[in-house]
Amino acid sequence: MRAVPLVILVLVAVLTGSTHAAFPTKSEWCLRGGCSDPPVSLLGATTALESKVFGSSAVSCGDGVCNVVAGEHCLSCPSDCGKCGLTAPVVRCRNSKHAALSFDDGPGPYTETLVNTLNSLKVKATFFVIGDTVMKNPQLHRVIKAAMSAGHDIGLHTYTHRSLGGTGRMDPPVAGSRGMTAIEVRAEALFNDLAVQNAIGVRPRFLRLPFLEYTSNSMAVLDTLGYVPVSVNIDSSDWRVAMLPNTTADMIASNVASGMRSVQGSGIIILQHDTLEKSTLAIPQIVSSLQASGYTLVSMSTCLGLPGYRGPADSPILASRFAPESAKLLASEANKPPAIDNSTLASNNKTNAVGDGANSGISSPQLPGDNSKTADKQKKEPASSSAPPPFGGLWSTSSIVAASIACIAAAMC
After folding, report:
1. For residue 102, which of 194, 254, 234 has the smallest C-alpha distance?
2. Distance from C-alpha of 203 to C-alpha of 200, rounded to nearest angstrom
3. 299 or 390, which is more confident?
4. Are 90 and 230 spatial neighbours (Cβ–Cβ below 8 Å)?
5. What global pTM score does this model have?
6. Which helix (H) or strand (E) holds 272?
7. 11: Cα within 13 Å, side-chain hemisphere
8. How does pLDDT run across 326-369, given as a tens digit for each residue?
9. What percent of the chain has pLDDT over 70?
10. What is the Cα Rg of the chain in Å?
């Protein structure tokens, strides 16, 4: 009988509800029940890498290691994790004449037709997919892969669509909902991340907040992990319209047009759902209206001026700011430009929680220039290519560990 790898045994324990320091038990993260497990092989590789990077010693804020496995982040332990660079989600495009269509909750039965419609109109959009839905519908992997190949961005919408706000609510409501811990927020993002990688081979950086809700703690966790939370400044309210009798696509297009008038002079991010047929049917009218108003429809990466996916030089478990010189070295060897650090994002949004009314009182965050630590304070660490790549060929364990060691040695974590 073939021996079962230790990593698989560890993952079986995690996914079946046994205690493990890195992730909450399944009963804790799958509140509604019936959830698919995240991809075992990728999660096992992540767990193995984290064990090498963080070890098993006791965690203490101030020890020079930003241990996200133990729940540390830039707000709870800035001495280890640095100052938070992101305090609120981005809500608008940087260019005042850019508009980003975005679709949540997929993939679903209307996603493929929507992608074809967008392609025929020669415009780009972004799809924020739910990890559990991706895992339960492998037949739709080709659809989101085709969308990415056509130039649309694929983003994250958490694994179970649980609010990152103070209530941790779900829809329909689930008894016992509560705000999530840092470790639970990390699981929602990372599981979603790996589900997408399993489907299309890349790991997104953009994450749409379920219900557009967040807390200062959930923002800090996402920032430390290297994700860019994205909100909106125009909500089509298509889900509300869908509950009305005699719903039409015109009603949804009218909501978007009304939102456009309220944000004149600003780049815009629009919220719709590709799980609602009437909303997808409204796209030709919405696109026509936007273009008539002088907007260019772009993907989220163009909208924000940031890469939509983690690259070969990016850490798969932390924001790239934790080893900037190592990241630059790896990028140079791959003949690619260094990854943009999402820690340079900042915000003037004064609220810590945003509800569904996305057009009410949302101010836009600023996207300033790089405020990362200067190069003369960093320690370079040559990358090694001797270890086999554990993340689908995108990163080698040795290079990421080397980057982490350089970071820890320079006391910059």
Report:
1. 234
2. 9
3. 299
4. yes
5. 0.76
6. strand 268-273
7. 18
8. 334 333 333 333 222 222 233 323 233 333 333 222 333 333 22
9. 72
10. 21
pLDDT at 373 exceeding the cut of 70:
no
The DSSP string of 73-86 is -TTT-HHHH---S-
CA–CA gap between residue 346 and residue 395 (Å, rounded): 28
For residues 325 and 135, give the distance between their C-alpha atoms in angstroms, rounded to a whole number.
36
Q: What per-residue confidence (pLDDT) applies to 322? A: 61
Cα–Cα dist 71/66, whole Å: 9
Tokens matching residue 63: 């020890």
Instruction: Give the 3-state secondary structure of residue 99.
Output: strand
Total length of the chain: 413
Half-sphere exposure of 272 (CA within 13 A, CB side): 31
Could you tell me which residue, 126 or 358, shows the higher pLDDT?
A: 126
Secondary structure (DSSP) of 11-45: HHHHHTT--BTTB--HHHH-SSS-PPPPPHHHHHH
Cα–Cα nearest to 413, from 319, 328, 332? 319
Q: In Å, how far from its chain's centre is CA 362?
A: 20
Complete DSSP assignment for 273-287: ETT-HHHHHTHHHHH
| H or E stretch at 296 | strand 296-297
For range 50-78, the mean pLDDT: 88
102: nearest Cα among 129, 142, 80: 129
b/e string for 221-232 if b means 16 or more Cβ within 10 A? Answer: bbbbbbbbbbbb
Q: What is the DSSP letter of 126?
A: E
Q: Are the beta carbons of 159 and 214 closer than 8 angstroms?
A: no
CA distance 255 to 248: 12
The distance of Cα 32 from the centroid of its chain, to the nearest Å, equals 22
Name residues whose C-beta falls within 8 Å of residue 34's C-beta, 6 or more positions apart in sequence: none
